[in-house]
Amino acid sequence: MARNGEGTRAAIMDAAQALILEQGFAATSIDRVIDRAGVAKGAFFYHFPSKADLAHALVERYARQDEALLVDLLARAEELSRDPAQQVIIFVGLMREQMQSLGDPSPGCLFASYCYEAQLFDATVHEVIRGNLRLWRERLAAKLRQAAKRRPPRLPVDFDSVADLLTGIIEGAYILSRALEDRRMLSEQLLHYRNYLELLFAEH
Amino acid sequence: MARNGEGTRAAIMDAAQALILEQGFAATSIDRVIDRAGVAKGAFFYHFPSKADLAHALVERYARQDEALLVDLLARAEELSRDPAQQVIIFVGLMREQMQSLGDPSPGCLFASYCYEAQLFDATVHEVIRGNLRLWRERLAAKLRQAAKRRPPRLPVDFDSVADLLTGIIEGAYILSRALEDRRMLSEQLLHYRNYLELLFAEH
DNA sequence: CTTCCTGTACCGACTGGTCGGTTTTTGCCT
DNA sequence: AGGCAAAAACCGACCAGTCGGTACAGGAAG
Lengths: 204, 204
Fold this sequence. Notes:
The structure is a homodimer of 204-residue chains.
Chain A: H1 5-23, H2 30-37, H3 41-47, H4 51-80, H5 84-100, H6 110-115, H7 123-150, H8 159-179, H9 185-200
Chain A binds a DNA duplex (30 and 30 nucleotides) through helix 3.
């Protein structure tokens, strides 16, 4: 490995992802990516055969980080309580912590960015996104079903749908936080999801 | 007015909006817009001085339709019940009807599309979006405050934030419905918002 | 005559992508 | 230890095509 292969590759991907979240994939030219990353054009096409391959590499990396976050927070929540309902509520709290620790740049989700430029990406890219969304649904819905066994919810709900609601609220809050330039949006909106669960699984 | 000025203008805007929701603003070239609209390039630049002006005209039209929908559904909800809490719940139900009546193309919100290509638009465009989001917040929060006077919520909540939750859930559901190719997402997710309100304002 | 368009030809800037060549690191031979 | 070729990592000029936008002559409808 001459020089710093992985480092350069990561620098290109970091620059590209930041630019894509600011202005979308189509408007993010390779020239601007390599300018921001501080590398030449040859370096880009050494690491990525085409711009489409960059898109694919980015969504796969993002999906891996996303899955790792899910697994990590879920494991921590499971250690902090024995009650499944409490575990989900704690999980939401940990997500709020996570969201608040995000840096200055207006936050955004690469999945959502891709979804609003859907036609630019091939089926394999969309399959990565779909797979991750289904993973969140499955993991959370399983917990919710456990919770419902101990204490039936006060309203009849589809647990897959309640699980989807969390990711939906997060995606929606990203958009609101960008449009209204209010970074507290994420944690405020997640609080309502927590409220909803608490009311659903309230005793009596 | 020779020929059909407003008709051509609308045809261009319809074609552009459809393309933008499929692939984003940057990837939507003027050539493809006029091709889809069935007009010549001269016609485009007769109606719009630049592509940026098209973006502005589109967001303003979308905002007007959005505001009209809000006012209409709210008025209908107010006629269907005297209780403010019930009015909001009915309003959510009317929104679900509205969402289900949307046509075949995977639905999306122009505001969200613009937000994920934020840097391509000037401040006036973003101000239109912000204004509309704030309008929804104000109108809904006012209703929620009325509801809270009659029956205090079971959990302490910020009503502006609860109002934002509705738009947030809708935006999130748009993304989920696109990513998972499931058109029922919109109405399912809105049902949870309704549940949340019912639990918040439940008697006893 | 004005308004609303068509059609085509054109411009400079920028796009994704190619390519020949250069530098750096590594593994191997002596 | 020193030398050396090959592979890996990178550079930057260059290409064909597309982009937003201009220009303008002409035609159809009110």
